[in-house]
Amino acid sequence: MRIRCPHCGERALDEFTYLGDASVTRPDPTSPDAAGEFYAYAYERRNIAGPTQELWYHQAGCHSWLVVTRDTRTHEISDVKLAEDVASKRIKSTAGAA
Amino acid sequence: MSDPQNEAALKRNGLTISKREDVAVTHVALRRGMQAELEKRASAALGVSLPATARVAEASGKLVVWAGPEQWLIIEPRSTGKDPSVDLAEALKGAASIIDVSDSRVIFRVEGQKATEVLAPSMAIDFHDQVFKRGDVAITHASHLGVMVWRLPDGSGYEFACARTYAVAFSEWLADACGKLTRPA
User: Coiled-coil intervals in this record (chain B) (predicted)?
Assistant: First the structure.
């Protein structure tokens, strides 16, 4: 498996470190059901057969955090974005909804 | 390689491997929200724009090397006594964080016609001259040692920057890699 880093281009897997699911967002610790939400955030994960969003860190390269869209059945990678771009987009969309 | 620290220049497969102790290395990191300001002041101070992608830029004896997003290394001949990071820190004050990393990074150079052919099998990046062009930079690893490598703009070979802690290990790896058997001419 090779990942195309937006900064560095295509690199071998040994340059990257896997963190986990990129589709979950950290709950608000001040919400009334914070304990329940954090339980779900930490433990209730789906084991998807198909396209997933994952966080990868380009440890041996440019040190960027990446959001990689990977199909767990084929390992095909359909999209790689910088995690900071994904996060700032997410912040904007929640700010717009509020 | 008996003592890589004291070996001036090694020859392997017609390649010359040398350690550049004649240069000062300065690390420049953008401060948040100061991109336009840094671009303007860095161009004035260095005489060349900071490369936004994995490239090097040349300016009157200086080499400006992309060192990851919003970071650069400035490599220039060491002048007598004066630390070039001081002037740069003054010129870029408030727009970037400047650190003299001359003691923390070591620059190695490999020159020779066969440089690409010999190095390509030793590292996991694509060294093809249509992919890794003159002036291109890669931050990667060589046998687990973190390195930056760039193809010299004049096409004469490559330079590597590695942490000084790993300089001995890296130079031994480099000598070994450059000494690998090549196809008979």
Answer: none
Residue in A10, A14, A62 nearest the CB of B139: A62
Residue A73, domain extent: 2-96
pLDDT in tens, B83-132: 889 999 999 999 999 999 999 999 999 999 999 998 999 999 999 999 99
The DSSP code sequence of B51-100 is PSSSBEEEETTEEEEE-STTEEEEEEEPPSS--HHHHHHHHTTTTEEEEE
Contact: B141, A7; criterion CB under 8 Å = no
Q: Please give the span between the terminal C-alpha atoms of chain A, in angstroms, as a whole number.
A: 40
- Tell me how many domains chain A contains: 1
CA distance B125 to chain A (A): 7
How much is the pTM? 0.89
A7 to chain B, any CB pair closer than 8 A? The answer is yes
- For residue B138, the chain A residues in CB contact (below 8 A) are 8
The architecture in CATH of the region B11-20+105-181 reads 2-Layer Sandwich (3.30)
Q: How close B95 comes to chain A (CA, Å)?
A: 21
A42-72 confidence digits (pLDDT tens) = 999 889 999 999 999 999 999 999 999 999 9
Domain ranges of chain B: 11-20+105-181, 23-100
The second-level CATH assignment, the architecture, of B23-100 is: 2-Layer Sandwich (3.30)
